[in-house]
Amino acid sequence: MSNNLLKGKTGIIFGALDEKSIAWKTALKCHEEGARIVLTNAPVALRMGEINKLSEACGNAPVIGADVTNMDDLKNLFEKSMEHFGGKIDFVLHSIGMSLNVRKGKHYTEMNYEWNQKTNDISATSLHKVLRTAWDMDALNEWASVVALTYIAAQRVFPDYNEMADAKSLLESITRMFGYYYGVKNKVRVNTISQSPTRTTAGSGVKGFDGFINYAEKMSPLGNASGEDCANYIVTMFSDLTRMVTMQNLFHDGGFSFTGVTQAVIEQMEK
After folding, report:
1. What is the reported pLDDT for 204?
2. For residues 69-108, b (16+ Cβ closer than 10 Å) or e, as one string?
3. Which domains does the chain possess?
4. Contact by Cβ (8 Å): 124, 44
5. Mean pLDDT of 227-232
6. Is residue 258 packed enough to be buried (19+ CB in 10 Å), middle (13-18) or exposed (0-12)?
């Protein structure tokens, strides 16, 4: 059921790969809540063709390819989006992450630094480039909201998360720093949401993911937050109900982040 939380608002959704993607679910929810959106992903991801289904489900939302590491691509994306909307933009979702060292099986202590640079550029510095492009083009309305997806491995050690832990730490730092400047300039809000482990196409590529998602379920008083739940939370962050929230890392994980141990985990260890 729609509450029209985003009625009249416009936004860009980065990173909807397939139906498992949080970005995909968020796009559907934004459309349901009355927003007009533009969908974007890397050209190689667009060639998979899945995003066209999402476009149709979102009222034939435009699909504009953009390499988030390329400033010219991002400028083109914002120009075409503002042309489509007939004005500035109210919200942006950054749902982007890729680790070459994880993909190629390199241990954290043996990482390839050239791959690491690409991982950081795609997974973290890309947020700075998105915000910088919007800043230079004056593309965001007052009280606009930018949300990037992160993970608690930015604060705690999860061995198999590898170099992505470093990338998420950088992502969260960019959120705070750019959030300060954009808040002063134009009251734009910038936040990260630290989501439960979720069975997305990207998340499932992490070594030992099945075991970890089961552990997280036992460690969370409310259980793991689903992708649909995360989409709902993101919509509230895009809405006017959260206008004074900025520069925050917001845990959306069923209580995992503040739980030392649960009875279910103790019982499992005693078996």
Report:
1. 57
2. eeeebbbebbeebbeebeebbbbbbbbbbbbbbbeeebeb
3. 10-270 (3.40.50.720)
4. no
5. 97
6. exposed
Choose among 20, 53, 21, 59: nearest CA to 37: 59
Phi, psi of 20 (to 5 degrees): -80, -15
> Minimum mean pLDDT among 9-13, 105-109, 177-181, 203-207: which range?
203-207
Between CA 195 and CA 151 the distance in angstroms is: 6
* Residue 61 backbone class (left: φ over 0; alpha: ψ -120 to 50; beta: rest): beta
Cα separation, 167 vs 123, in Å, equals: 6
Grade residue 254 by pLDDT with cuts at 50, 70 and 90. very high
